[in-house]
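User: Once you have settled down, look closely at the record that follows, taking as long as you need, and be ready to discuss the fold:
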Amino acid sequence: MPICLYAAALTGRNILLWLIYIIVAGLVWWLLSWLVDYCGLPQPFNKVAKVILAVVAVLFLINAIMSAVGSPLMTW
């Protein structure tokens, strides 16, 4: 489909919800990253935990962006 058809789904409400999702995901990622550092996990486990957090955050953001245009990756 042409990209211009997807632009019709981007309303002000969807953009605002998308921004809220980004802010909440960033805060949750920062808090969990801080918690992993605070717990003092040994070095290999620390990096693995941070990579898992980053992957989950990216999937959450991709889902938020896709739901803004009308076709979410996952439904809750």
